[in-house]
Every structure is written in structure tokens, then in C-alpha cells.
Design a protein that fits this description.
One of its GO terms (biological process) is DNA-templated transcription. The protein is an alpha+beta fold. The chain has 45 helices and 46 strands. The longest helix is centred in the C-terminal third of the chain and has 22 residues, at 1294-1315.
Length: 1403
């Protein structure tokens, strides 16, 4: 293109010039094609907007944003992550800014004289992001990928019009009309040096409706600053004055505020487009939301980092409050985080435009903006208290302290969970409607009590229950820090025997043991909030081998090689910290699912061979490639392979027999080789690929030991491969597994290219008939019949493979396939799902029974607002809709409106998701009015509402909501949104009914118009409202109805679908264009809203409304972790937090039975103090004589135990195993904790002592004896009764403290007496060990002393536990133990009392 290419400004950047040249070379040089490149326009709001290219083609008018980022681009619809050369950078999705520019440009062009006079409207301006770098990898998924192109597909996106295109192509007259409008609008050369005073504006950093943030450089000093331009141009005088005041007052608000955590406004300037504030600028500072995204998918801040940031933010806010300065709108968008390079983080608070500051004893106050909503970005909504949203409805302002405290709590939720507290203000209202504040256990398992309290009471919707000040918030935060920094059960010996729950120095906590190899043990660990693998030397003798492996891994950086982080020494054992392949190993997948599905096979093979290429580049060998050494990890949303276990990489080439024999090159023993080489490495990789493709190794390799000597070449049977790639893979393996190394692939890159060829050919070639090897012309979809074979359809190899796995052979079977069935198949790619979905839709349209067609309405323009008016609340609207009757004639009207608007006088609450929407027939029957009279009343009412400016304004609100939400909403959703926007002072459920009533009034008024913009559809118990301005109302309603049906299906799945699986099913439904850019969250909420019985959990799972309480308790049991004690209300609240619309949990004693039935480990203790009340559920702990409620005066309690039934054979094995466990401890002189039913405790003590010749020592008696001896030896001994009473005193009292001092003095002598025993000791009555906090101290130290001294006798600890557990507990504290589970055993009831076997269930 030359003549019609208009370069307004020469580009200063080589990458931009190259991208524009790329487009220029490929675009046709004739009408209607036109391009305007590198220009600037000033929008009607005064904002400065730069355009890279505006491209007009027959397909449309495109605003093209050029981004030249070499490397990898990933992210979502909100933010992108750019990874290049190992560095990550996060930035806002450029389409968001491009969309904003497009709307502004369209409005500007439409206001030009030529456009106003033109017969045809100017075309809609679409946006497109062009990733112009040649080597860019686009890993964007879902909505984020829409309208984002690379060099491979940008021309297709701009120009290609397929057969399904329904829009009118742009022609030469429209092209000229656009050109005239642009000329009149005054597009001009892009000024790279716009100025504010002595500052030159360089780069746009951020933008909202009322401001633009620019990076600017001082022309004399070169200092860089952030400059915020307040956009007053084109605004009404009142709005412009508000913004001018905002700028001036924000500058004044920060006057005298000097704090490292507060971003300063350094200067106030004036610009042609409005006032400007000059701020400090730190190029290393990143917005908090971007900083968290930059951690990586599924990652969250390390706990210590989260605490550090939260304390910095809170202390900066406390400082501001001390200066009477209140932010009032804290959110991640207001916080800038800087990584100081040494692992430390610092933060600054910005965006004080919504602040309030009091002066002179609060007799004078400054507020930058009167309403919070005036300048906030939408993303900040979930961090604002509900009262902040309602400020626009009241003359008074909300309490600023409470607003900031709420925001701190919501930010804390984000920092610790990695998730925002809600997707938007509407969802936040829904979460808080339960009245208890945000529950961090909804998103985080194992949260401690102090952290739960901090977030819940900081975000409590009732300000009377909310934390009252930032100083109090910091006190809560200190408790959280104490809780999170308490030492856990740190591993002090034999690290290779660690188990789940053990910790190592440096805050590394073991969560799972993966297994042990020849030289190492692998654990899943949590380190600084991240899940990693700890590969630990099995013994110090293997340390050198692991250090060598670390040196190898340091040289490797590749996405298909496990990432190495650091090396530590753990009690003399070398350990490597590696990434965790959380999806298991390739070997596990092969055993579970068989051969790898077609699409994954291509990807997995490419992963493995790309890792091999990297190894060859570095001159390294793995030496043990096999499925067991290949992990599966999610990279983005895709599953990929990673190679791990490089423990043999340092072996010499002469040692060619090391490794796994079945995967070795059998020809390495041929003369002239007998050394490990790259050919042997690639042979192992080829065998692994073979197993991936077929599910097994070749017969000659499928056995133990090195394969036998083979004469001649290997025979490859093509029949074992998928038909679509059979010939290609057979040729690949003949070459890869050839005997003569000269006939094999010369390097890994050649091997990788050859691997790709069969798959590429399968995508291009015509389909092969399954029974023949000749090409068959595919049967066009338009000619297929019910009995047509699937193999004859024009389908890709991937699609055919998918249908084969579903056992579908004919078109008749295919059209009966539910499209969501495809989502259930593992390994089916999005492209294949889409291909099959489209084919099924086309076949069903032709061959399925016809459905009645629907006709859409013509697009109707919005009705003009008849008057501006004020934004009035739901309550005020209701008074206008249904004024109280004033005369007898109004009674019928009043009764009619009461029923018509939703039975407003009904007693009690109805289901929140139900809306009463009666027809005239049912309404007349309900209130006794003739149909004709009802129709007359309705006509008069609708006529009056149509003239009411407040109803008109409400209709405009509904239209905006529909546009924002994709074009379709349910009546309940609209009611909730209107209630949030306009507010109500009525209590529930009246406020909800009134909101739904005003929504019905608005909708019915609109539907009564001659050219209505919406349609209404009744769908079961739901009412759907869809935008019909483009004639797509029926299609939108169809989509919403289908979403609802799918949500109902998902909710009934057993087990519940994971959030990802459910979302895949939702996304698999073909969506209207208006839903293309909507978030996953919106789709899920619409699906639930349109369903008849589905609900959405806090984890985004679909579940059935009214789900049984036992089921919800079972599914959400992880929410109960983190605290040793829970009240009934806390258990109920946590479960309801996960599944709010399930049946509520019962109270006691039914709840006891539910917890016991599910064996969650919690038991009811009526004596324990918790939350100011007596009684709580406690984690498993010692019962009689092991209960922390034991005292010096009385130590026995009575508890109930549930019988454990076993069969005769298993019982005999259990008894034998128990006795062997005890004898092993006796022989080794070890510690062993034993637990038994409380009622069998006395008999167990006697039987143990008699059977194993144990010396019984009561801890209570031992302690009392030593205390007596200590007191008797004192010059002034205390009164013994006073000592006993001190045990029952409050733990903070002086008497209790003195008693503990006495106890500490006698503990060493007690331990010495036990160690000096001449036979094994059975320690009983351990309740006071728990009560006095001696489990980890005295008991743990005694156990270690016994372990270190080989001359001591064994020590047994006898506990009475109500519930069978995997470990020993005293008062909720786990008893210290050694390697594995050898130091704890459960005493079988039948061993103590054989008669129980005969009693059966009578116990």
C-alpha cells in the first residue's frame, strides 16, 4: 500500500517502523483500503490519545495497537505477563486502553459535520493488538486472546471475510466518509514533547474516565516524575469545577505529610486540558495487583512478605490518620510495591484524590471529591466498604476511619490468599450479606485463628463490630505475626525420615513424602508460601552426588527441565529445592489412562525433545530418561512435560550400564561403541516416546535387565500407532531406533523436526479411510446423512481421534452427542472442541428435528432521557411507583400494583433467587379483578411510568447494566445491581422485593414501547432480560438459558466438578459476540442465575442448592483446619462460607454425629473455654488422663468412643502387628506412644504391664511426689492446699505463675528418675503434661535423651483418645516423634479385651 497509506508522524522507534512496514507491504493499495499511521487526537473529554494505526478494510475499521515484545506473552483479560530472557513484566491488557481510545475516537468522528450530514453511519471501530515481534509466543487464553494477533494471523484478522460473515462489507463511500471525518476532527502529528510547565510528557502510564497519568521528564534537570492530568475539557462546568477542586485539594491534603510509605504530590501545575499534579516517580515500583500477578499463575506471596507489606501499609495509614488524613479508597491500584533487590519489599500509598483531612480540631475539613465513585477505577470496588458505595445517596459522609480499616482487611485477604476478596462490588455485597465479614477460610486452608479474626473483623459490614481504628488493626496484626512465627515441630534428627507437618530450619515445612530412590528422598514442601520439592540425600554419603546434580541443574534453564532454586544443608544432609510437578509423573498417567491422546502426544513429545536439544547445547546428558523421571506441570492452562532427576548426569561415559536397563540402547554393546553417547541418550528418549504413543515398550524392551543381544535391525509394527500418523511415526521410530547410529538422527533438533512432521501432515492431508490406505474425498457436511461414516467427514486427525475414543462411528451417533461431553475428555484441545462443536451444530441444523424459528427485532436506538433529574434511591422510586391510596378509587390500583410488582405485602421471606412476576390472568384471579379491568389498569400505569423521568433514568441504568454484562441478565441480578447502585434504607427482605419491583416497572415500561430495546423470557422460575437493539435478543436469551441448564447439570455431578472443569464446560458453549470479552466470573454467575437449582461455591464450584449438610461438611472440611478449637457457630459459618446455599449445619448433638461419621478428628469438649464461652470442638487429644482439663486434684474424665469393626483375618493381622511394634520398641530401647479407648484405659495399662514386664509410672503421682519433696525441703514450705488450689487458678494469675515455677524446678529430677529405671517404663496419666505445656519441652527433651543414650530402657506413653488418629495428641498438641510412624501405635480393642470380638456392634 502506498497511495492510501497516510503516515501522519514518522515513527521514532525501529520496532514500530518495522511493524508498520509489515502491514504496509501486505495491505492492498486500492479503495476501500486505507491506513492512518502514528497520529494523535484530543478527545471530547480533553484526553490526549496516540494511535499507532487506524486501518480500514472491507471487513471493518480497526484501531491497531502495536506491541513489540519478544519472548512470551501470557495473562488474562485484565493484565498481561511478558517473559523475556528470564525476566517477568506485568502490565494492563493493552486492549483495555485501545477500547477506551476507540470509543473516544468514534464519538469524536460522529460529532463532525460531515458525519452528521452523511446518509450512512460511520462504522464501529474495532480494536486489535498486533504483537509484531517475530519470535513472540502468544500464550494468552480465552477472552484475553481475542483480537490479539501475531505476524501469522494479523492480515487474516484485518482482511479475511469467511462465508459466515454476516456484516455488510465497508465500501468506497464509507472509506471516504471516514477520511473526511478524520480530516475535520483535526488528527495531527503525534507530539512526542507535550509539556506541563518544564516537564515533557513522554509515555502514558495509566488512564481512567477523569484523569491520565503520564511519565514526564524535566527539561533542565532530566528528573522523571509521574504527572496526573485531570480531564476537565469538554465536561460540564459543574463536573469540571469538581475535578479542578480535586486536584487543588489533593495537593493541599498532602501538605506537611512526610512518610516513606506515602507518595508525595510535589507540585501543582496547569495544562491546557486541565490541572496537573506532579508526583515522585520510581521506575522500579509496581502496582500491587500487577506485582502479585507477576509472581506467576497460582502463586501467592510468601507469608513473611505478606506480613511485611501489610504492616508497612497499615503503619503508613496509621501515620496519615495521626495527621487527620484519611484515604477512604485504599485498593491494590493505590499501592506501589518496590523490590529492594535484597529480598525486601517496600510500599507507597498513592491516589489520595478521594481523601479527607480534618484541620483545627475538626472544625474545618477538606475533601478532594464529594463522592468516592467519581474517580475510582472499577477494580477498586471489592476493596471498599459497602457504606462507601452508598455515599452518593446521602448527604453525610461515611466514617473515614472505618472505610480505611475495611480496605486494609480486604487488602490483607488479597495478600495472604493471592485472590481478590470479590470480583466486583456486587459480589462483595453478596459475600458480606451474611453479616460476618470476609472469611479467609473460603479461599485458604489452614488459616490460623488470629489471621481469621483480623480479616473478618476488619471487614465486618456492621461498623459496630468492625475493628475501630488502624492502631487496633495493627494490634491484631501483631497477634497474627506471633501466630505465624511460632515454631512448629522442627525436625532435629534424621531429616530423611521426615513426615508431613515436620519443619526444617528456614521455615521449610513438609506437606507430603513423594518417595525414596537409590540415593535420595523427595518431599513436597512449602517454602516461603510456595510449593516446592525438597530432594534430600538419603544419607550424608550421598551428599556429593546431590551437589553434582545441583551443579548440572544450575547450567540448565528450560521450560521442559525442572527448575532448580537453591541448595541447603539439613542436619548434615544435602538438599535441593526444585519446582514441583504437581500433576504427577508421565508413568502414572500412562498407567492410569493408557496411551497419550493425540493432541497431547504431539505436545509432550515436543517438550521432551526440546529438553534434549537444550541438554545437547550445554554438552550434558541425563542418562536416565524414562516416564518415571518425567513430570507433568501446568504452564498457563496447558499440561506440559518437565524432565527431572539428573542424579546420573555426572557419571563418566565409560559407565554405560548405569540407569534403567529397560530404556537403554541395546546396541551400545556393539563393537566400536561401549561408551555412553548422545545416540544412547536419544535412544532412551525414543523408547519413552514409543511408550507414550502405544502405552507400552517394545516387546524386546519390556522386561527386566538390559535387553538381550539383537541380531539385525529392529522391526517396528506400524499397526500399534494411531491411523492418522501411522506411517509417519513408523518411519520416525525406524530411524530413531536404528541399529546403525549413522542411520539415526544426527542430533536432537533433527529428531524434534522429524517428530513434528507426522502431526503437521495429519493436519493438512485429506482423511484416510480406516479400512484402506487410499485417499478418500471427504463428504461435505452439507451432504452427510445419518448413516455416513465419521471417517468420511472433513475432520482433522485430532477430531477423529477424539470421536474414536467416544466410540462414535456415524453421523447419527454424532448428532446425539451432547457438546459438553467433549469437555469431559482429557487431552482434547480447545481447537478440536470448537471444530467438533461447529460440525455437530451444522449437522444438527440439517438432520435433527426442526425447531420453531424465532424472529428478531430490528435494532432500536436508545430512547432519550426526558429529564436529567437526580439519582434517587430504590425507596424513593417505590414511592413514585406505588403511592399510598388517597381515595376509594385508588384502592384497586394499589392492590393491583402490590401484586403486579411482586406481591409486596407477602409475609416472610421468599427464596432470594425467586422473583414473583405474575401474568395478568393469574394476577386477576389472585386479587379478584376482571381481565379487562386489569388490562386497562396496566395500560394506564405503563403510560404514566413512560412519562416519569425517574423511571426513564432507571431504564437507562438497566440498559447500561445489560451492556456491561454481555447483553442478558436475570431479573434477580438486575434487582441486586440496582439495589447496590441506588441503595435502600429498608431491611431485608423488603429492600430486595422493592428493588425487584422497580426493575419490573422499568422493564415492563420499556416493553410497552413501540420499539422496545429488550425482550423478556420466562425460563422456569427465572426471568431473563436480553438486549435486542441489534436483533440478537432471542440468541442472547437462548445462550443464558443454555448456561443455566449446564449449571444445573454440573451441580448434580458426583463428585462435584472442579472449578476448572466446570469453567471449561461453560466456555465450551458457543457464546454470542457480546460475551467474547467478559470474564469467567461473569459467565459463572450468569449460569447460576439462569439455572433452576445450581449455586456457586466460594471456590467457583457448581453445587445443588439445598445440598445436604453432611455433603457440604465433607466437601469443605479443609475450611476447619488451622485452629485447634472451634465453636458450633464457627463450624457452621466456615462451611456456609464455602457453600452458602447448602442446607445449614445442625447444632449439637446432631453436629457431633456428623463430625464423627466423617472422622474429621474434632470432638466436643464441654469444659474447654473458647470465645468467652464454655464448650468447643477440639482436635484429637488425650481423653481420660490425657486431657488438658486434668488438674492436680482430679485427673480422670469419662468420654464416649465409637466401636471400630474389623474382620477376623484383618483383626489377627492387626493384633500381630501391634505386638511386633511394641517388641521392636523394647528391643531398640525407643519411645512409643500408645492410644486406647478411654473405657479400656485401665485394663490396657494392666495388660501392657503384665505382658511386656513394664514399670507403670503415673505422671500425676510422680509430679506430686517430687513437688512434696521440694516443698518439704524448703525453709518456709507453702501450704499444700494452696498449691492444689493454684492449679485451678487463672493462667494469668500470680498463684498459677508460682505453681509453674515449682513444676519447672522438679522436672529435671522427674526425667532422671524415668531414665534411671531398671526396666521399660509405661508413663500414664499424662493430662498435666498437656495442661502445663510440657509436650514439646519436657516430653520432647526426654524422648531425645532416651534416643541419644543406648543404655536406657524403652519408654511407653499411654493415652486415652476418643478418635482413632494417625498421630498421638495431648490437649491438641502432637506428641514429638521420630522417623516415620514408628513412635505411635493404636492399641486394638480386641488385644485389651478379646470378648469385644464376640460382642460385635453391641459396644
Amino acid at each position: 500500500m502506498d497511495k492510501l497509506w497516510k503516515q501522519i508522524t514518522p515513527s521514532d522507534f525501529a520496532w514500530e517502523r518495522e511493524a508498520l512496514a509489515f502491514l504496509k507491504e501486505r495491505l492492498p493499495d486500492h479503495e476501500p483500503y486505507r491506513v492512518w499511521a502514528n497520529f494523535e487526537f484530543i478527545a471530547q473529554d480533553g484526553s490526549i490519545n496516540e494511535i499507532d494505526a487506524l486501518v480500514l478494510t472491507p471487513k471493518g475499521l480497526f484501531l491497531v495497537e502495536i506491541k513489540s515484545h519478544p519472548g512470551e506473552i501470557s495473562g488474562d483479560a485484565g493484565a498481561w505477563v511478558w517473559i523475556s530472557e528470564g525476566r517477568r513484566r506485568v502490565f494492563d491488557n493493552p486492549r483495555l486502553l485501545a477500547d477506551r481510545k476507540a470509543k473516544k475516537l468514534k464519538s469524536l468522528l460522529e460529532s463532525q459535520r460531515s458525519a452528521l450530514k452523511a446518509k450512512e453511519r460511520l462504522p464501529f471501530i474495532q480494536t486489535l493488538v498486533f504483537l509484531s515481534a517475530e519470535n513472540v509466543v502468544n500464550r494468552l487464553q480465552g477472552p484475553a486472546r481475542l483480537q490479539v494477533c501475531t505476524r501469522k494471523n494479523v492480515m487474516e484478522a484485518l482482511c479475511h471475510i469467511d462465508s459466515g460473515w454476516t456484516h455488510r462489507p465497508l465500501d468506497r463511500p464509507i472509506s471516504k466518509a471516514v477520511a473526511r471525518a478524520l480530516e475535520e476532527a483535526g488528527i495531527k502529528e503525534s507530539l512526542r514533547a507535550r509539556r506541563v510547565g518544564l516537564y515533557a510528557l513522554n509515555t502514558l502510564l495509566d488512564e481512567a474516565d477523569h484523569f491520565q497519568d503520564w511519565l514526564a521528564t524535566h527539561s533542565e534537570t532530566g528528573v522523571q516524575r509521574r504527572i496526573r492530568l485531570y480531564l476537565t475539557h469538554g465536561k460540564s462546568e459543574q463536573e469540571a469545577a469538581t475535578l479542578r477542586n480535586a486536584a487543588k485539594l489533593e495537593f493541599r491534603l498532602l501538605e506537611g505529610i512526610e512518610h516513606p510509605g506515602i507518595l508525595q504530590a510535589r507540585d501543582y501545575q496547569q495544562h491546557d486540558q486541565g490541572p496537573a499534579l506532579v508526583y515522585e516517580y520510581d521506575p522500579a515500583a509496581v502496582r500491587l495487583d500487577h506485582f502479585l500477578i507477576g509472581l506467576g499463575a497460582g502463586q501467592r506471596l510468601e507469608t513473611l512478605a505478606a506480613l511485611t507489606l501489610l504492616r508497612q501499609i497499615a503503619e503508613a495509614v496509621r501515620f496519615a490518620h495521626g495527621k487527620r488524613l484519611y484515604h477512604r479508597a485504599l485498593s491494590p491500584q493505590s499501592l506501589y510495591v518496590r523490590d529492594d533487590g535484597d529480598g525486601g519489599l517496600s510500599v507507597k500509598i498513592a491516589n489520595w484524590a478521594t481523601a479527607r483531612r480534618a484541620f483545627d480540631g475538626e472544625t474545618r475539613a477538606l475533601t478532594a471529591l464529594s463522592h468516592l465513585s467519581c474517580i475510582l477505577q472499577e477494580e477498586a470496588g471489592p476493596y471498599l466498604a459497602l457504606e462507601a458505595h452508598a455515599e452518593t445517596l446521602s448527604a453525610g459522609a461515611s466514617d473515614s476511619v472505618y472505610l480505611d480499616v475495611f480496605s486494609l482487611g480486604a487488602i490483607a485477604y488479597l495478600l495472604f490468599t493471592g485472590q481478590p476478596p470479590a470480583a466486583n462490588g456486587l459480589e462483595l455485597q453478596d459475600k458480606l450479606s451474611r453479616g460476618k465479614g470476609l472469611q479467609i477460610t473460603d479461599a485458604l486452608n489452614g488459616a490460623g485463628r488470629e489471621l481469621q479474626d483480623l480479616i473478618q473483623y476488619a471487614t465486618h459490614p456492621d461498623t459496630g463490630s468492625r475493628i475501630g481504628s488502624v492502631a487496633e488493626f495493627i494490634e491484631y496484626l501483631t497477634l497474627v505475626e506471633d501466630e505465624l512465627s511460632r515454631p512448629d515441630s522442627e525436625r532435629r534428627v534424621d531429616p530423611a525420615a521426615a513426615r508431613a507437618g515436620d519443619t526444617f530450619e528456614g521455615g521449610i515445612r513438609v506437606t507430603k513424602r513423594l518417595g525414596r530412590g537409590a540415593s535420595s528422598v523427595a518431599f513436597v514442601v512449602e517454602q516461603r508460601g510456595q510449593e516446592r520439592v525438597l530432594k534430600l540425600a538419603a544419607s550424608p554419603e550421598h551428599n556429593q552426588r546431590l551437589r553434582q546434580e545441583a551443579e548440572t541443574l544450575k547450567k540448565l534453564r528450560h521450560q521442559a527441565v525442572i527448575a532448580y532454586h537453591e541448595t541447603h544443608d539439613f542436619l548434615g544432609h544435602t538438599g535441593l529445592i526444585l519446582d514441583y510437578a504437581a500433576e504427577g509423573t508421565l508413568a502414572e498417567r500412562l498407567r492410569k489412562l493408557g496411551p497419550i491422546q493425540f493432541e497431547l502426544l504431539e505436545r509432550f513429545g515436543d517438550d521432551l525433545l526440546s529438553a534434549l536439544c537444550h541438554l545437547e547445547e550445554k554438552g550434558l546428558s541425563h542418562r536416565d530418561i524414562k516416564p518415571e523421571n518425567i513430570g507433568l506441570m501446568k504452564q498457563g492452562r496447558q499440561l506440559h512435560l518437565v524432565l527431572f532427576d539428573f542424579s546420573l548426569a555426572s557419571l563418566g561415559a565409560e559407565n554405560f550400564t548405569a540407569g534403567t536397563l529397560a530404556y537403554m540402547d541395546p546396541f551400545i554393546r556393539d563393537p566400536g561403541r561401549r561408551r555412553w553417547d548422545d545416540y544412547a541418550e536419544r535412544f532412551s528418549a525414543a523408547l519413552t516416546l514409543y511408550e507414550m504413543a502405544t502405552g507400552r515398550l517394545p516387546t524386546w524392551a519390556d522386561g527386566e535387565g538390559l535387553p538381550p543381544l539383537i541380531e539385525g535391525a529392529l522391526e517396528i509394527d506400524p499397526a500399534v500407532f494411531d491411523p492418522s500418523v501411522r506411517d509417519g511415526l513408523a518411519g520416525f521410530f525406524r530411524t530413531a531406533l536404528a541399529r546403525d547410529v549413522k542411520a539415526r538422527f544426527g542430533n536432537a533438533e533433527d529428531m524434534r523436526r522429524a517428530w513434528r512432521q507426522p502431526f503437521d501432515q495429519a493436519k493438512r492431508k485429506t482423511t484416510q479411510h480406516p479400512g484402506e490406505g487410499v485417499a478418500v474425498q471427504p463428504c461435505p457436511i452439507g451432504e452427510a446423512r445419518l448413516d455416513t461414516q465419521i471417517g468420511l467427514l472433513p475432520l482433522s486427525a485430532q477430531a477423529l481421534d477424539t470421536l474414536s475414543r467416544l466410540h462414535i462411528n456415524s453421523v447419527g451417533e454424532l448428532i446425539r452427542l451432547p457438546r459438553n461431553e467433549l469437555v469431559r475428555m482429557t487431552g482434547v484441545g480447545t481447537q478440536t472442541r470448537r471444530e467438533l462443536s461447529e460440525v455437530i451444530a451444522r449437522l444438527q441444523a440439517r438432520l435433527a428435528p426442526p425447531e420453531s424459528s424465532r424472529t428478531g427485532r430490528d435494532a432500536i436506538s436508545s430512547a432519550p432521557i426526558e429529564g436529567e433529574g437526580l439519582l434517587i434511591s430504590v425507596d424513593q422510586l417505590m414511592r413514585r411507583l406505588r403511592p399510598p391510596p388517597t381515595k376509594a378509587a385508588d384502592q384497586d390500583r394499589y392492590r393491583f400494583l402490590t401484586e403486579y410488582l411482586g406481591r409486596l405485602d407477602a409475609a416472610g421471606a421468599r427464596a432470594a433467587d425467586n422473583v414473583h412476576w405474575p401474568t395478568l390472568i393469574t394476577l386477576g384471579a389472585e386479587i379478584g379483578i376482571e381481565s379487562a379491568a386489569a388490562r386497562d389498569l396496566l395500560a394506564r400505569v405503563l403510560a404514566q411510568w413512560g412519562k416519569n423521568r425517574f423511571i426513564t433514568q432507571l431504564r437507562q441504568d438497566v440498559a447500561k447494566l445489560l451492556a456491561e454484562q454481555g447483553g442478558v441478565m436475570t431479573a434477580v441480578e438486575l434487582g441486586e445491581a440496582i439495589l447496590l447502585r441506588r441503595g435502600s434504607v429498608q431491611p431485608s427482605p423488603i429492600r430486595d422485593r422493592w428493588a425487584q419491583a422497580v426493575v419490573r416497572a422499568a422493564i415492563e415500561t420499556e416493553l410497552a414501547r413501540q420499539e422496545s430495546r429488550w425482550i423478556l423470557r420466562r425460563c422456569g422460575k427465572r426471568m431473563l432480560i436480553a438486549d435486542d437493539t441489534q436483533g440478537l435478543g432471542e440468541a442472547l436469551a437462548d445462550y443464558a438459558e443454555a448456561l443455566g441448564q449446564l449449571a444445573d447439570e454440573c451441580a448434580e455431578q458426583q463428585p462435584l466438578l472442579s472449578p476448572l472443569r466446570a469453567l471449561e464446560r461453560i466456555r465450551a458453549l458457543p457464546a454470542p459476540d457480546s460475551f467474547a470479552g467478559l470474564s469467567n466470573h461473569r459467565l459463572l454467575r450468569l449460569a447460576v442465575a439462569a439455572s433452576q437449582g445450581a449455586a456457586l461455591s466460594s471456590r467457583a464450584e457448581f453445587y445443588p442448592k439445598g445440598m445436604p449438610a453432611e455433603r457440604s461438611l465433607e466437601l469443605a472440611q479443609g475450611a476447619l483446619l488451622g485452629t485447634p478449637r472451634l465453636s458450633v457457630a464457627e463450624v457452621q459459618d466456615r462451611i456456609q462460607g464455602r457453600y452458602p446455599e447448602a442446607l445449614p449445619l445442625p447444632g449439637r448433638p446432631q453436629l457431633d454425629a456428623l463430625l464423627n461419621r466423617l472422622e474429621l478428628g474434632f470432638i466436643w469438649d464441654p469444659q474447654v473455654e473458647h470465645g468467652g464461652k464454655r464448650g468447643a470442638y477440639c482436635l484429637p487429644r488425650a481423653g481420660a488422663l490425657g486431657d488438658g482439663s486434668s488438674t492436680l486434684a482430679a485427673t480422670r474424665t469419662s468420654v464416649h468412643y465409637t466401636r471400630h469393626e474389623v474382620g477376623d483375618d484383618s483383626l489377627a493381622r492387626e493384633l500381630k502387628a501391634f505386638e511386633q511394634r511394641v517388641r521392636n520398641a523394647l528391643d531398640a530401647g525407643r519411645f512409643l506412644a500408645l492410644s486406647v479407648r478411654p473405657r479400656l484405659w485401665q485394663r490396657a495399662q494392666q495388660h501392657l504391664a503384665e505382658t511386656f514386664a513394664l514399670q507403670v509410672v503415673s505422671f500425676d503421682a510422680l509430679l506430686l511426689r517430687h513437688l512434696h519433696r521440694l516443698c518439704d525441703g524448703m525453709a518456709n514450705p507453702p501450704n499444700w492446699q494452696v498449691v492444689l488450689k493454684a492449679d485451678a487458678a487463672d493462667s494469668g494469675s500470680v498463684d498459677w505463675s508460682r505453681l509453674q515455677g515449682l513444676v519447672r524446678r522438679v522436672l529435671p529430677a522427674m526425667a532422671e528418675e524415668i531414665r534411671a529405671a531398671d526396666r521399660p517404663v509405661l508413663l500414664t496419666d499424662p493430662g498435666l503434661i498437656g495442661r502445663y505445656g510440657l509436650v514439646d519441652t519436657w516430653l520432647g527433651e526426654l524422648r531425645r535423651q532416651l534416643e541419644d543414650d543406648p543404655q536406657t530402657q524403652a519408654l511407653f506413653l499411654l493415652l486415652a483418645n476418643e478418635t482413632a488418629t494417625a498421630a498421638a495428641f495431648i490437649d491438641g498438641v502432637s506428641v514429638p516423634s521420630g522417623a516415620g510412624s514408628r513412635e505411635f501405635a493404636r492399641i486394638p480393642s480386641a488385644w485389651v479385651n478379646p470378648s469385644l470380638v464376640r460382642q460385635g456392634s453391641a459396644d
